[in-house]
Amino acid sequence: MTTDTLDISPKLRGRPREFDMDAALDQALRVFSERGYYAASISELTEAMGLTAGSVYKAFGDKRGIFLATFNRYRKVRRGLMDERLAVAPNGYEKLRELLTVYAESSSGEVGRQGCLVVGSATELALFDEEAAYRVAFAFDTDEQFLIDLIRLGQEDGSVPDRLDVESTARTMLCLMKGMRLIGKTGRTREQMIAVAETAMILLN
Question: Quick one: average pLDDT of 55-60?
Answer without folding.
Answer: 91
